[in-house]
């Protein structure tokens, strides 16, 4: 029997080896070996299995007596310090005997203690388990209960303490105890189906200190992912469908911000679940402040606090707490807990019963209201929203994604059709390319913005200075604007940043080309020159009217969308680069083909070669240069002058995730600069590490005169945009009259919250301490997408081309006719599967599918999502 210690130290009673009052043959043989196990299972059973203890030999204090074993089994220890913390569970343990609570009766009550230190003398789950039999001895239950108590994993010292004399040796790590558990059946008045009470401690340590300390001292570390993973499995799959009517309480250890085993604060650790919270506040002196602080920590992390519970200490803390909470959250007061440790608390439970009743009622009604609302939302949304970029006639109510919240890269999605479970879905389109935060940065951003809102509210910008705006401007100029920009012009979205850039560029052009001489005195349209842009087909610069004028005709600019659209520009088709059949290839538009080209000019051994500036000396560079000069020369003067070059550097996003040949863009910049045409880089999409470097200028190896940023700049948490400019662009607006100033502004220009978020995100992304994806020089992100998988996808028969760069992976499905292009719904079934079965939230650009992560997303996550896409694509192409 000694040898069983290590594997099954919590086997204490015959019940631990039983199934419905018969031996669990497999478990018994597993524990004692086939031969002895078979012998044991032949022993006839007595009905009172709970009282038959296994006696383990050779403990330090002599034999483990039956009495001691019995007491331990009943959860009665000499110093029962756990009870104060654990009493909150007891009402739940009682609840199955209450015939109805609102519309709910529960088949299952679960009381989960994820992290327990001070084990075994302190054990909340044991406490609940033991008290249920004590309570049942005082009153008849209406329904019978099957109660179980289980510890999943425990540190060696805690196992030794739980079973003195046991030899666990130098085990290291956490012992797996899942297969040993206690079970007790308490008969009720009614026959028929019993209720279940599941008491579980997930991880236990001996020392009664903070879990991170106990885990370190007892050599029993637990990763956050393991802890969260176990809880997720319990919450999602613990119950079979017919038993879904369950009531679960997850009790945290210590306070809201006490560290978990890895050191992560528990309020952060459990945040992905965003379970409705009951705050156990403090009824003692000083407790008002502590309770409010805890409440605010929860709110700041996006939790809904359903109720606050305090113990009565005669100080009426509930009055100021209720008033602070504006009576919107009930504050319940439990009677004082008896100090006498020999008190079995039964009378206290009787006295507290009413409070526990209201607590359960409050929790149930808050949760059912929440669920009801979540169920109603899709239909209501269909009735009142007008979604952008959405053909409503193609959307049915089942297609609507109900997003309860976001935690890092994941949405928490409520799936009404799937038993109303809350599922984590990876936001693979980074919510329209804005997102960067992992869950840690999200919390940091929320806190900083809360501070900024509290400090400034909103303040107007012109001729004013405030720290967030100044700090943000300085960071931008030291970062994305380094080496060329000296001015920051804040606005609030990408499109307006573009409009501002166009105004700046045109002024600069006129200034440099003598077009401003009369304008200060005569600001009328008649005297002005027609100014056009030089831009690329497939480009996208936003949806405001001016930004649209600067882009080539597309699905977004057609007469149906924008009858005012004229397309004020010379639009050149750019050469693009893509990965296909394991090779990076160049695709040249008509007009650029030449017999001077060699194979080496149009295929590349690696992506790095595409960005290599040694290509500046190639034939291709010459071909590009003459093509651009030729197109500029033949542009009719009657149409106007080219007053600005505007382009998305390196990748055209909305146009279909095309990687434009960086050599072509560099040549374009050089040609325009030689003609004093101001250059605008639209980095709204490409900026802030989207392409693996802080700015795409690093990839292009050339700089603009003006650049626009938005989206990821704030980490994606709040809208803010900026247009950066050189000093000489700025100077073209300087004069004696206000009329020559840039007369452009928005109500929320340089918004404090936006600037605050941007300063945090900009720093976070480029700090190797916070962004583990940075390479050793801190200049670029390591490869985010598994190379082998990327190459495999590039040679998949269903795939036309692939682009993988920085945080973006994109592929174009091979498709023809109406299956190709922006309006295509060719990939619909594939996307539905990915969303519903793989929890991957994607939104394609027609037949172009893409995945997008944040600059700090772990590469393991990227590989997981890419693999999901690969598998589904394979299935999809076989079914075509
Ligand atoms: C390259 C580019 N420029 C401008 C914009 C417009 O930005 P916003 O949607 O913030 O107006 C976008 C939006 O996707 C974009 O991708």
From TrEMBL:
The keyword Transferase applies. Keywords: Aminotransferase, Pyridoxal phosphate, Transferase. It is found in: Mitochondrion. The keyword tRNA processing does not apply. GO terms for molecular function: adenosylmethionine-8-amino-7-oxononanoate transaminase activity; dethiobiotin synthase activity; protein homodimerization activity; pyridoxal phosphate binding. One of its GO terms (biological process) is biotin biosynthetic process. Coiled coil: none annotated. One of its GO terms (cellular component) is mitochondrial matrix. It comes from the Eukaryota. This is Uncharacterized protein.
């Amino acid at each position: 029997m000694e040898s069983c210690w290590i594997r099954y130290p919590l086997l204490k009673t015959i019940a631990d080896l039983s199934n419905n009052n018969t031996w669990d043959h497999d478990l018994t043989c597993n524990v004692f070996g086939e031969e002895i196990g078979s012998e044991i299972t032949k022993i006839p059973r007595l009905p009172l299995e709970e009282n038959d203890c296994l006696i383990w030999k050779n403990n330090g204090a002599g034999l483990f007596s039956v009495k001691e074993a019995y007491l331990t089994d009943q959860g009665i220890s000499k110093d029962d310090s756990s009870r104060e913390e654990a009493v909150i569970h007891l009402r739940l343990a009682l609840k199955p005997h209450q015939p109805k609570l609102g519309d709910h009766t529960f088949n299952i009550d679960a009381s989960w203690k994820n992290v327990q230190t001070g084990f075994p003398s302190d054990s909340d789950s044991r406490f609940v388990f033991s008290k249920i039999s004590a309570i049942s001895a005082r009153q008849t239950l209406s329904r019978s209960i099957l109660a179980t108590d289980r510890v999943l994993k425990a540190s060696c010292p805690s196992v030794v303490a739980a079973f003195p004399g046991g030899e666990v040796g130098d085990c290291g790590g956490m012992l797996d105890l899942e297969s040993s558990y206690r079970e007790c059946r308490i008969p009720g008045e009614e026959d028929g189906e019993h209720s279940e009470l599941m008491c579980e401690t997930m991880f236990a340590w001996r020392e009664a200190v903070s879990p991170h300390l106990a885990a370190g001292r007892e050599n029993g570390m637990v990763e956050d992912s393991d802890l969260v993973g176990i809880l997720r499995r319990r919450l999602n799959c613990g119950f079979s469908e017919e038993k879904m009517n369950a009531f679960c309480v997850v009790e945290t250890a210590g306070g809201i911000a006490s560290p978990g085993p890895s050191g992560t604060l528990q309020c952060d650790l459990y945040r992905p679940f965003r379970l409705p919270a009951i705050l156990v506040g403090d009824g003692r002196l000083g407790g008002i402040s502590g309770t409010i602080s805890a409440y605010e920590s929860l709110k700041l992390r996006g939790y809904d606090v359903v109720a606050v519970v305090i113990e009565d200490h005669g100080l009426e803390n509930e009055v100021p707490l209720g008033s602070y909470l504006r009576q919107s959250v009930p504050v319940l007061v439990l009677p004082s807990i008896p100090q006498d440790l020999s008190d079995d608390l039964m009378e206290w439970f009787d006295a507290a019963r009413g409070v526990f009743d209201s607590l359960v009622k409050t929790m149930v009604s808050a949760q059912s209201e929440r669920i009801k609302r979540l169920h109603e939302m899709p239909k209501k949304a269909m009735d009142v929203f007008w979604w952008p970029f959405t053909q409503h006639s193609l959307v049915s109510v089942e297609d609507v994604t109900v997003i309860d919240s976001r935690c890092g890269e994941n949405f928490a999605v409520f799936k009404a059709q799937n038993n109303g479970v809350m599922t984590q879905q990876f936001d693979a389109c980074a919510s329209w390319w804005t997102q960067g935060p992992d869950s840690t940065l999200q919390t940091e951003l929320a806190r900083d913005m809360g501070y900024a809102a509290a400090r400034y509210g909103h303040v107007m910008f012109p001729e004013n200075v405030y720290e967030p705006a100044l700090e943000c401007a300085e960071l931008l100029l030291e970062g994305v604007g380094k080496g060329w920009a000296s001015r920051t012009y804040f606005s609030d979205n990408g499109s307006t940043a573009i409009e501002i850039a166009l105004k700046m560029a045109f002024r600069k052009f006129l200034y440099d080309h003598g077009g401003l001489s009369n304008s200060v005195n005569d600001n009328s349209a008649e005297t002005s020159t027609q100014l056009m842009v030089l831009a690329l087909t497939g480009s996208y610069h936003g949806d405001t009217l001016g930004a649209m004028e600067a882009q080539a005709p597309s699905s977004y600019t057609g007469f149906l969308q924008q009858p005012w659209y004229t397309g004020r520009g010379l639009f050149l088709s750019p050469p693009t680069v893509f990965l296909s059949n394991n090779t990076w290839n160049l695709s040249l538009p008509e007009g650029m083909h030449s017999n001077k080209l060699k194979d080496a000019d149009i295929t590349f051994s690696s992506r790095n070669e595409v960005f290599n500036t040694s290509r500046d000396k190639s034939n291709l560079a010459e071909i590009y240069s003459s093509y651009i000069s030729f197109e500029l020369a033949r542009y009719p003067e009657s149409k106007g002058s080219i007053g600005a070059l505007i382009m998305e550097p390196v990748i055209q996003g909305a146009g279909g995730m095309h990687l434009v040949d960086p050599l072509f863009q560099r040549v374009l910049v050089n040609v325009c600069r030689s003609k004093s045409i101001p250059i605008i880089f639209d980095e709204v999409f490409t900026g802030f590490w989207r392409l693996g470097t802080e700015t795409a200028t690093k990839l292009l190896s050339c700089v603009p005169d003006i650049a626009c940023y938005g989206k990821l700049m704030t980490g994606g948490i709040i809208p803010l945009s900026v247009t950066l400019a050189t000093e000489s662009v700025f100077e073209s607006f300087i004069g004696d009259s206000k009329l020559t100033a840039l007369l452009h502004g928005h109500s929320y220009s340089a918004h404090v919250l936006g600037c605050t978020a941007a300063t945090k995100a900009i720093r976070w992304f480029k700090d190797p301490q916070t962004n583990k994806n940075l390479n050793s020089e801190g200049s670029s992100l390591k490869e985010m997408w598994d190379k082998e998988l990327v190459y495999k996808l590039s040679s998949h028969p269903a795939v036309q081309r692939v682009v993988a760069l920085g945080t973006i992976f994109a592929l174009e499905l091979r498709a023809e006719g109406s299956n190709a292009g922006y309006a295509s719904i060719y990939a619909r079934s594939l996307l539905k599967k990915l969303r519903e079965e793989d929890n991957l939230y994607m939104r394609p650009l027609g037949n172009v599918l893409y995945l997008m992560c944040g600059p700090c997303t772990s590469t393991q996550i990227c590989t997981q999502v890419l693999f999901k896409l690969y598998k589904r694509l394979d299935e999809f192409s076989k079914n075509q």
